[in-house]
Amino acid sequence: MSTDVNRTIDAVWRIESPRLIAGLMRMVRDLDLAEELAQDALVAALERWPRTGVPDNPGAWLMATAKHRAIDRLRRAKLLDRKHEQLAYELESDREDADARHTAELDDEIGDDLLRLIFIACHPVLSTEAQVALTLRMLGGLTTPEIARAFLLPEPTVAQRIVRAKRSLGAAQVPFEIPRREELAPRLAAVLGVIYLVFNEGYSASSGEDWIRPGLCEDALRLGRVLAGLMPREAEVHGLVALMELQASRLGARTAPDGTPILLPDQDRGKWNRLLIGRGLEALERAERLGEVRGPYALQAAIAACHARAATAGETDWVGIVALYDALSTQAPSPVVELNRAVALAMAYGPQAGLDLADQLLDAPALAKYHLLPGVRGDLLAKLGRHAEAKDEFERAAGLAGNERERALLLERAARSAAQA
């Protein structure tokens, strides 16, 4: 198999697998079976595409192949003829299939396969952590190692969580059907968490050769916008949309043409997308208008808005950002929030103030393998002129980083600190 075709199949799978699994789950109403059918389609692509070439519409090819596999399995299992006919009908008539989907959308307020299946998988029978892990793996397109990094957990822990979640859904005989409107709100926190983590993986990839994965950001933004239309009175939905719009506005400035990361202070703000900034600020205003107090997503959006409103890095309202992080650490306390607050403190009140807080996090178990803790400490030590210590911290951060671009940047900063020591 040629390397080019291999890479193409890998890229297509990353993009199409969540939609493929979502569509299959809607039809077969069995999570494990949907995943197996999707994998069968991938195996068929690996066997055929190197000989025949990648089709013009690879997503449609994968779906059609998976549907054929579904029909074969249904025939072998001698399931209901009605179910078999339904799948065959969808496979064999494009026009009527489109009409059927349109009719289903009229009856289904969610109207988006991927978002609908996220709500279904975020069933109350599971803990919030299990809901998020399962939907990220099955429908968010993230690998188990990527989810583990997002949760700051060991990979085996996340893998077990996903397996147990599947078993729990099966044992409870959870029907894969659209939740009623009154059932949406209890699942909202998990759904928001899924969308947020998918966006984060796109904004700053935890592994691989690329620092950003814009496709994941686009998927998360689309889901957030659909969700805002579905639940227009939920302040935190608009808060999350605001956060994603504002963060996505920087994507064009976050990397050089060769893919090298460009950190926030060094970005050309003329390349920030003003349309997305405008949309983000409007969504933030809606969130603040709807909520009595700003929730965690709205607070993070407000922090992003401080950056968006500053014409230059030097004009950033860091004192205001510190106040927002203070509020966020009260509402949603976590070691990662504290680490971000340390950065803000350093920018507002000097690097020693930030280092003092960062040092308090050295014994936090969740940050034991989190590369950004030594990365932040290295940056603050360098600003204090403690270059030998900074070098050690940057090297430690590089050893923990899963992303190749980020690792190279940290090693470069280590070499720079070594030269100044």
What does it look like?
By secondary structure, the chain is mainly alpha-helical. The protein has a domain at 1-107. The chain is built from 21 helices and no strands. The protein has helices at 3-28, 31-52, 58-77, 81-92, 94-107, 113-121, 128-138, 144-151, 155-171, 181-184, 188-203, 214-230, 235-248, 274-290, 296-309, 318-331, 335-349, 351-359, 372-383, 387-400, 404-420. Helix 12 (214-230) runs antiparallel to helix 13, helix 18 (351-359) packs antiparallel against helix 19 (372-383) and helix 19 runs antiparallel to helix 20. The longest helix has 26 residues, at 3-28. It is globular, with a radius of gyration of 23 Å. The termini are far apart. Residues 98-107 have low confidence and may be disordered.
Task: Summarize the entry for a quick read.
This protein is mostly helical and 421 residues long.
